[in-house]
Amino acid sequence: MKKKMQSIAQSAGAGAVRSFPSRLGSLIEESRPLHLFVEAIPAMRRAMDHCGVPAFAFSPMNALPKIGLGKLTVEAAAGAVILSDDNTDRVVPTGSQNEYYREILTRLDAGRELALVPEHIAKHLKAGGVKVAKQHEEYIIRTNDVQTFPGGRNRQMRGDINRARRLCTVESYDPANLDEYKNVVRTWYRQNAELKFRTYDKTSIDWLLHHWPELVDAVPSMTCLGVRHEGKLVSVNMGCQLTATHWTAYTQRFDRDCPVKHVSMFGFNQLAFAFAHLEVENDGTADTKSIRAWKERVVDKKIDFYTVKR
């Protein structure tokens, strides 16, 4: 297995998944579900593009905490990895389009409900009598547009980002500052309690921060940037590579009392420079209303995902 993982890491190119560290107590080595998912990442990146399934929920940053916290189980199938909870399967392609479609049919025939099925497949299934319901939409934004916020309608945002660049410093997350980063996350959830974000979102972020060194060793594209104003941490921004052409901003958590306007969008902007080698950002749209409104100004297109069941 060790030779196999080293071979994958050598052939997968930029953002490759490295071989796992060999040490007693290793989180990933000692968790078969985590190990199985991480081992499949290079194949998932390639297959999600050609199968048309660049789903935000399939990113390592979104999936690994839920697996590690026992929210999702992981199962290998022919040409796919299956992420499941008690009621629903999510089929993540790792092989050909035909293998992906066959696995979807297999799961449906077994009576399972499927989530995160792309629109082109959902329409085909609906024509065959399968029950289909829109789950949500996701934003596709050009990386260069996140870097520049082009056009007259974005003049204010460009000005705010340039001001934040002058007033703030950006750093890569150091686990020695774990408590400080967790405090910003806790502050954001307290300040936005009316949004009723699901509890495990915060739990997932805390899990990522706590296990960061080993996770980044296994998945080097995972990035966490902190933004400081006058030495105080005011924003935490996480992202990672999703497919061969997509990256995703997993989360932006910030202190609303920070005097620097749009410090959260500045963090989003800085992530785009970290992923400048990838063409587009896939955004899950789970933001505050104001952030979502600003992101909508630079959306290139939207993609729809569906739940399906016989």
Provide a descriptive summary of the structure in words.
The two termini are 38 Å apart. The chain has an eleven-stranded mixed sheet, with helices on both faces. The protein has twelve helices and eleven strands. The chain has 310 residues and is an alpha+beta fold.
Strand order of the largest sheet: 1-2-3-4-11-5-10-9-8-7-6
Q: Which shape, going by the Cα principal axes?
A: globular
What structural class results from the helix and strand content? alpha+beta
Q: Helical content, roughly? A: 40-55%
Number of helices: 12
Mean pLDDT: 88
Biggest β-sheet: count, sense, barrel? 11 strands, mixed
Key structural traits:
11-stranded mixed beta sheet, alpha+beta, 310 residues, 11 strands, single chain, disordered N terminus
Topology:
Blueprint: H1 2-11, H2 32-50, H3 60-68, E1 73-77, E2 80-84, E3 88-93, H4 97-109, E4 113-118, H5 119-127, E5 131-142, H6 143-148, H7 155-167, E6 168-172, H8 178-191, H9 199-210, H10 212-218, E7 223-229, E8 232-241, E9 246-254, H11 263-274, E10 280-283, H12 289-296, E11 299-309
Parallel strand pairs: 3-4, 9-10
Antiparallel strand pairs: 1-2, 2-3, 4-11, 5-10, 5-11, 6-7, 7-8, 8-9
Helix pairs in contact: 2-3, 3-9, 7-11, 8-9
Q: What is the gist of this entry?
A:
By secondary structure, the chain is of the alpha+beta class. The protein has helices at 2-11, 32-50, 60-68, 97-109, 119-127, 143-148, 155-167, 178-191, 199-210, 212-218, 263-274, 289-296, and strands spanning 73-77, 80-84, 88-93, 113-118, 131-142, 168-172, 223-229, 232-241, 246-254, 280-283, 299-309.
